[in-house]
Protein: Diaminopimelate decarboxylase
Organism: Acetobacter ascendens
Amino acid sequence: MAETPVYTDADPTLAELLHTHPQLTVDPTCGLMLEGVALNAIADSVGTPCWVLGAGTLRARMQRMHTAMSNAGLDVSIHYAVKANDHLAILTLIGQEGFGADIVSGGELARALKAGIPADHIVFSGVGKTDAELEQAISHGIGQINVESAEELEAISAIASKLGKQATITLRVNPDVDAKTHAKITTGLAANKFGIPFQDAAALYAHAFTLPGVRPVGFATHIGSQILTTAPYRAAYARVAELVHTVRAAGNAVSVVDCGGGLGICYRNETEGQPEALAGAIKAELGGLGVKLAIEPGRWPIGPAGVLLSSVILRKAQGMDVPFLVLDTAMNELLRPSMYDAWHGILPLAPQAFSQPVSLTHVVGPVCESGDTFARDRLLPPLARNARIALLDTGAYGAVMSSTYNSRPLAAEVLVEDGQWQVIRQRQSVEELWQDETVPSHLAKAT
């Protein structure tokens, strides 16, 4: 597993970040733009912090995934990983493009159905599905449940039998393959909580055929997130292929292999994971099995589609070797840097800032936690009070992980499409923070 990254090379410059993010451009008058829309105009109207998502970028990247699989001659169903960004507008777009959903909770199932994604286009993953969630999924007749344990298999059988239904299932296999990604987002090692141990999978699959209420169709695997090379995929898929041959030799049919997701993006200066390369890995290891294939991309299509707009509260420089740029955005909006030591590009919104000299700057939020830090020793132009910046690649695991810590209302969300923009979630009011709270009557009387 990769540990916290220690970078020995120089961070990308502002120009280099623009080059690796073609959805962003700089207009000499309007400043930084996403898909041709001035981000300053959005901030003027909506305020900051504010999430902005580009529908065109998301559509193009999902279609590139589809084209890569199709050009490789693969029969692949694509299920968007809802956990990356679960906004109804995003899920509606996904469904209208003809893609399915990969969910990990009953709430995500309800969102996907609300957005119009057909139940039979939904796959249910996740290590801890409750009885209520399983009953919900089976009652709706979702396309597939990825079973994470022998115990869960028994529970599904009992619930489906009680409902008089038959649940289509795959076994999620843990192939014990190191994806060489951050320890907190790797899922395919034997030490991780996910999936069925590889050595137990064949016997459990055979057992599944003896149970009422379940229809075993194959296997699933998912080895982690932010994967940039195909070697871990090929190693995992080779093990799954071995398993398919083993269970077929024992007389049990396999018609589905779910290949998971996890393809990585370019946050800093990484070589972005390529859907075409992923298709090649799937074809090389699984293409000859004669099975229906599936993938679950989340970060790759939606991550680069989003930016988080922020304003500078103040520049704390007096007595500092490196000044602190204090933003109105905090870890309660974007948790990834605090949780994963994640690197996010930072670009100014003002056009003149791109031609100014840069100097080392620490970029932090206002929350009372030392972990509320977005960047250290980042080379940035002078940014005074009320200057605006965009934190890049925040479309995935950004707004969906937000909280109201420090009683900070949830930020607004905006969708950009065809040169226009629309608010898709209003900024939460302070009063809404406590609208569901109740003060017991004996305490209310005391005040």
Summary: The chain is about 30% helix and 25% strand.
